[in-house]
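Weekly modeling sync, notes
Attendees: S.R. (lead), two postdocs, one rotation student

Agenda item 3: backlog of single-chain predictions. S.R. asked that every request posted to the team notebook include the full sequence so nobody has to chase files. The rotation student volunteered to paste the first one in as an example of the format we agreed on. Action items at the bottom.

Example entry:
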Amino acid sequence: MIPTIRDLRPGDVADAEAVVRVRRSALPFLITTAAGVAHELTSAHPDGHHRVLLAENPEGLPVGTVSVGVAHRGTEPGQAWFNAYVDPEHRGLGAGGLLVRAAEEHLASLDVLDTYTWVLDESENRAFAERRGYRPSRSAHFLRLDLTAGTLPPLPDDLPAGVELRPGSAFAADPRPLHRADAEATADEPGDVQVGLDDYEEWLNDVWSNPILDHELTTVVLVDGVVAAFSAAHTDGATRYGSAMTGTLRAFRGRGLAKLAKTDSLHRARAAGYREAFTGNDSGNEPMLAINRWFGYEICASETRWTKKAGAAR
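Predicted structure, as returned to the notebook:
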């Protein structure tokens, strides 16, 4: 029988937990929690037209989910996205196709020019995207580091003159310096859609207040009292840690500060009991891939960004 599609019910813990279960089964390299899913809805900007949908089998069990919205912070208008996931144990029911159709119908009335979606680099998934009129663009890798095995690169015994390490929590009273650093680093990150983080209040609500952002395990590098680099940490509050964003401001690049920030964050994550570390890199971002190889990360999966122009045939 055909699955049914419905919106996630805001405030419904069972719904949020169902999204987490499906996402983890389909893409175990992501850090996701029920609180994070709830935040995804409550923090969404109206201009993003953000929705989270569930696909349920005839018995009412959620077997798939999709998040969809407009890239309202993009520097180019008319850019949209969705990411659909189906529990591997429940594929073949048509849930994936129905979720994609629902996402596309949601975007159809929003003056969208280009729609982007990430697809695991597997033959079945590639064929699924091609049949629906999508074309591949850039690729990226998921990387995993076992924090219980081997040793992390050591922290330096002495920091260079003027360099300090601080947790993100040290900026709780005024995170504006971190907002400025995140905005500059994000502007230089590879991607199909260039994103601007100019709106401080939106960043505060969407990024800083996200429950999966671990302020204590986020590391900030100061040079002469100025934020120079950072490594933002996402955690599930149990065993899984993820590098959400590691960046260096332009004026401080080439000094190994991003590597220093990430080294400190990983050491503190392991000391806090986290067992697995995950990160993701664009396949063309060789500087960060080299840093992650130095840490001992290994590629565990790859994905491709697929895109479709408005009006393209299915």
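Discussion: group reviewed the output briefly. The chain has two domains: 4-112, 145-302.
Action items: rotation student to repeat for the remaining queue; S.R. to check formatting next week.
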